Amino acid sequence: MPSHDKPPAVLVTGAGGGIGVATTRALVDKGFRVYAAARSATGPLDGLAGVHPLTMDVTDRAAIAAAAAEIRARGDHSLRGVVNNAGIIVQGPMEQVPEADLRRQFEVNVIGAALVTQAFVPFLRPAKGTLVNITAGTARAAGPFYGPISASKAAVASLSDAMRLELAHWGISVVVVEPGAMDTAIFAKAGEVAEKANASLPPDQLALYQAQQGAVLAGMAGLKLSSPALVADVIAKVMTTGKPKPRYTVGPDLRLLGLLSRLPLRTRDRLIKSVTGLGKVPAAQ
């Protein structure tokens, strides 16, 4: 068993990105030790006291097992928390999303979170720890051209609902943290992937959705992005709360998405068309 004079430890996946970096810093500030897992370098976290970087691809079961073994080798057989933050965004019209991109979306966001959970729930059991799964507002109200990311996050939300009941027997809390639009590099990366996919399309296929996608981009241009520090603060609160809530929403845009999720579908569709600008695009003849 770990020494009692050690601060409690938390595993954070996707620790090389905006929310992961902010969350690691927030947890360290609260007195936790953090195993910061990322596919490659954790950049801004290098050398930060209380942080132990781990190289881990969440889609690679062997890499996850190696990370678990490394944590045990460092004397930690229990964790206060696990934060499933690693994720990617695949966007675009479903008709044209490449199969490889769609599979990658679910491999990282859903299968990856599931594999990490399976490997590290045994670490949470001794400490009656907390499992945090990061979803998204679009998990409840999907928007046009964001079907892949929305569906993957909805799957994570459903898995979380099931695990919340399954793991309660051991006093393990399962918490969904649902961010809105955050000011991170993940959106730029998603844009690059979409551009690469578009480059392989013939002109007639590319033209099919050009007007609609242009309208959505223009309609969402004024969307205010929130700081990932908001999400990090919520996760730090979850880890220091005896009985955390099952779900936390973060970001002002979540209010609208929460309202949309409760509306009749036709009403929801009309409002989404209006907000995104799709309603201004003439129907195809």
How would you portray this structure in words?
The protein has about 280 residues and is of the alpha/beta class. It has a single domain, classed as Rossmann fold, CATH 3.40.50. Helix content is about 50%, strand content about 10%. The protein has ten helices and seven strands. The chain has a seven-stranded parallel β-sheet with strand order 3-2-1-4-5-6-7, sandwiched between helices. The longest helix has 29 residues. The model has no long low-confidence stretch (mean pLDDT about 90).
Sheet bearing the most strands, described?
7 strands, parallel
Mean pLDDT: 90
* Structural class by helix and strand composition: alpha/beta
Number of domains: 1
Please state the overall shape, judged from the principal axes of the Cα atoms: globular
Can you count the helices?
A: 10
CATH superfamily: NAD(P)-binding Rossmann-like Domain
What fraction strand?
5-15%
What name does CATH use for the topology?
Rossmann fold
What would you report as the Rg, rounded to the nearest angstrom?
Answer: 20 Å
Within the largest sheet, what's the order of strands? 3-2-1-4-5-6-7
| Succession of helices and strands | EHEEHEHEHEHHHHEHH
How many strands appear in the DSSP assignment? 7
Given this structure, which CATH class is correct? Alpha Beta
- Helix percentage: 40-55%
CATH architectural designation = 3-Layer(aba) Sandwich
